[in-house]
Write a structure and sequence with these properties.
Structural class: mainly alpha
Strand content: 5-15%
Number of strands: 11
Helix content: 55-70%
Number of helices: 18
Order of helices and strands: EEEHHHHHHEEHEHEHHEHEEHEHHHHHH
Oligomer: single chain
Shape: elongated
CATH class of the largest domain: Mainly Alpha
Length: 474
């Protein structure tokens, strides 16, 4: 036992490059220690969900290799137990390699191999000395197929377990508000200008529809993540692995995760590209764009409360200003918008990462994995928080319905009756004089009060109605 300059006890470990001093308490070995020293770049590390998926890959691989008679069953059993502990999160503190590392993620793969091998040795005592991180834990594998496989499984799991349920909650909240606000007719807006009336509930039905389609896109992203590269080893040829290894291991992973994990039908594309990750990120970006639209609309409709649009009232969750007493800001919507900025930025990084394949390998796997998993986590958390702390507590004010009668766009319903030009003249006069469309139409047309009441009924303006209004010829 030695100590380093900081008096931390160390032990001597060896890898193919020679000896290294490793913290005595660490489960990892020489290769991981080299990587920790080589990449002092950031505080970013692979997240828990990725480490779990990596442990699942190692566990399933050990079981398969034992069944195929390729590694000793006692060694495999110890590896399985150690890998299960990694899956359960018992050794997360021993995964120390920076996200900004070798583009294949080899350092993190070796981190896992060493942690599992060392832990397996301790589990079976003296007989475990022969357990080797490469020869046993990594048997039939390469970083080049393990890291993308773990990335995809982690992403698919996160989509299934976190993102889809969160989006379902948000969709339900928006649909509930749509029904609650259905009776409220307000002024629509196009180009930020007054447009024909719309139900507030119809606006929220549109938001719910965006999330409904976002759920479909997330499911497609999950499907993209279910095709794994495992079995291709170094360059896609499958060298040093059993022909049945990938199929069997994928089946175990599918059972373990509840996902449709399956071996790719083309290992050469699976390892030389990250096209599936790029496609999945594109779906996540689209969800972020949808959330941006919804969050922006909600905060604008709630702007004011007196000098803004003020048609909605957001729940007051915290003081909005350190200087202006009583000010309340749309902070939940703002947090959603910032999440969307990050997700869209992550998609740009993933897109560039996807372009960074050279011949038989992509060289940005760690950062693509980090950004992809972060996007899923952020979207899931933001969607759930948006639903619970903003949408569920929304209230409609009277301002929307009060402005309908004074709106100019209701003159649109006069056009089929008196012609576009005549209707435009009425709108222009109303705008110039401050009168309502009804008041000017009463003066300039031959329409009766009953006809005006029908033609200018806001309830007839929020759905197809030409068959009921008809042509008056006024």
């Amino acid at each position: 036992m030695k100590t380093n300059n900081e008096t931390q006890p160390t032990r001597t470990e060896k890898d193919s490059m020679g000896e290294m001093q490793v913290p005595a308490s660490a489960l990892y070995g020489a290769s991981t220690q080299r990587a920790a020293l080589n990449f002092p770049i950031s505080s970013l590390r692979y997240p828990r969900r990725f480490i779990k998926a990596l442990g699942q890959v190692k566990l399933a691989a050990a079981e398969t290799n034992a069944e195929l008679g390729l590694i000793d069953k006692d060694i495999a059993a110890a590896v399985v137990k150690a890998a299960q502990e990694v899956v359960d999160g018992a050794h997360d503190s021993h995964f120390v390699v920076d996200t900004f590392q070798t583009g294949s993620g080899t350092s993190t793969n070796m981190n896992a191999n060493e942690v599992i091998a060392n832990r397996a040795r301790r589990l079976i005592g003296e007989s475990g000395k022969k357990i080797h991180p490469n020869d046993h834990v990594n048997f039939g594998q390469s970083s080049n197929d393990v890291i993308p496989t773990a990335t995809y499984i982690a992403a698919a799991s996160a989509i299934k377990e976190d993102l889809l349920p969160a989006l379902a909650v948000l969709q339900a909240s928006l649909e509930k508000k749509s029904k609650e606000f259905w009776h409220i007719v307000k002024t629509g807006r196009t180009h930020l200008q007054d447009a024909t009336p719309i139900r507030l509930g119809q606006e929220f039905l549109g938001y719910a529809g965006q999330i409904e389609r976002g759920i479909a896109r997330a499911k497609q992203a999950q499907h993209e993540m279910s095709e794994v590269a495992l079995g291709g080893t170094a360059v896609g040829t499958g060298i040093n692995t059993h022909p049945d290894f990938a199929k069997r291991t994928a089946a175990k992973l599918a059972k373990m995760t509840g996902l449709d994990v399956h071996e790719t039908s083309n290992h050469f594309q699976a390892q030389s590209s990250l096209d599936n990750a790029v496609a999945a990120s594109g779906a996540l970006k689209t969800i972020a764009v949808s959330l941006t639209k919804i969050a922006n609309d909600v905060r604008w409709l709630a702007s004011g409360p007196r000098a803004g649009i003020g048609e909605l009232e957001l729940p007051a969750v915290q003081p909005g200003s350190s200087i202006m007493p009583g000010k309340v800001n749309p902070v939940i919507a703002e947090s959603v918008l910032m999440v969307c900025v990050q997700v869209i930025g992550n998609d740009a990084a993933i897109t560039v990462g996807g372009q960074s394949g050279n011949f038989e390998i992509n060289l940005t796997m760690p950062i693509v994995a980090y950004d992809l998993l972060q996007s899923i986590e952020l979207l899931a958390n933001a969607s759930l928080n948006f639903a619970r702390q903003a949408i569920d507590g929304l209230k409609a004010t009277n301002k929307g319905p009060e402005m309908v009668e004074r709106g100019l766009a209701i003159g649109t319903s006069l056009a089929p009756i008196i012609g576009y030009d005549a209707a435009a003249a009425i709108v222009k006069e109303a705008a110039a004089t401050g009168k309502t469309i009804r008041e000017v139409a009463r003066e300039r047309t031959k329409l009766s009060e009953q006809e005006l009441a029908t033609v200018l009924d806001p309830a007839l303006m929020v759905e197809p109605s030409a068959d009921r209004v008809g042509a008056g010829g006024g």
